[in-house]
Amino acid sequence: MSRPSAPERSPTLGLLLGLLITLSAVLAYSAYITWQVTGLRKLQTELVDRNRKDSLQLLRIQNDLNLLAVAMRDMVSSDEPYPLTAWSAQFQRIRTDLDDAMRLEAGFAATSRTPEQSAFLTGSFTQFWDAVDRIFALARDGKEKEAREQIQLSLQERQAALSTAVARLLVQNSENEEQAGQRIVRIYDRVQRQVYVFLAATLLAILLNGLSVIRWNRRLFTRLAEVSERRSELAQKLIATQESTLRYISRELHDEFGQILTAVGSMLRRAGTHAPEGSSLRADLQEVLQIVQTTLESVRSLSQALHPVMLDEAGLESTLDWYIPTIERQTGIAISYEKQGAAFAVDGSAGVHVYRVLQEALNNVARHSGAKQAWVRLRFLADALELEVEDHGVGFAERPNKHGIGLVAMRERSELMGGQIVFSRPAEGGTLVHLDVPREKVESYGKEDHSVAGG
Amino acid sequence: MAGVASCTQLPRLRALAAQAAPSPGFRFTDVTSQAGIQFEHNSGAFGGKFLPETLGSGCAFLDYDRDGWQDILLINGTDWPGHKKRRTTLRLYHNNGNGTFTDVTSRAGLDVEMYGMGVAVGDYNNDGFPDILITCVGQNRLFRNTGRGTFVDVTNGSGLGKREGFSTSALWFDYDRDGLLDLFVCNYVKWSPEHDVFCSLDGKHKSYCTPEAYRGATCWLFHNRGDGTFEDVTAASGIFDSSSKSLGVALFDEDQNGWPDLLVANDTQPNKLYRNQHNGTFKDSAVEAGIAFSSEGKARAGMGVDVADFDNSGTPGVAITNFDNEMIGLYRLNGKTFEDIAPQSGVGIASRNSLGFGCAFFDVNLDGWLDFAVANGHIDETVRNIRGNVGYAQPPQLFLNLGKGIFREVAAEVGGSFDQPKVGRGLAYADFDRDGDLDLLLTTNNGPAYLYRNDQLGGNRSIRFRLVGTKSNRDGIGAMVRVFAGGLTQSRLVKGGSSYLSQSELPVTFGLEKRDRVDRVVIDWPSGRTEEYKNLAAGRCYECTEGKGIVPQDGY
Question: Cβ distance B478 to B506 under 8 Å?
Answer without folding.
Answer: no
